[in-house]
Model the fold of this input.
Amino acid sequence: MRVAAAFLADAANVREGTLSVLSGFINTINRESYPAPLGATLVVVVEYDESEARRGDPERSFRARCEPAVGGAEVFSLEGTFSLGGGNDASGYIPMVFPLNDAQVPMPGSYRIVFEGTGLERVDVRFYANATEMPPLDESEP
Done:
């Protein structure tokens, strides 16, 4: 079992196992001031094969946490479970979407969302938060 894809998008949904994505692979957000809402959706697609489907409980747990790319405290997190579909002889993809529109990014800088779960290797989704507001001009400078 592996993470086949993990990225930020403007929006995404899953209907009957089909993933629909609007503006995927966001790697930069621009906000006038901070703290600011992330305003994006985390998309994760897990791929599994027959051997994984036969192994143990089909219910698996995951955790995602956002943190600065270089040290610092956790910014936000989420956790839950997902299920392998089909039966013991099935293989496939499990698309998952996590709306993070209101999750707060504290300041400009480089961040990563670390996604890990039972039987999965860790994957990092990186993004950069940019400040678009210019600092005030000092009228005393020429």
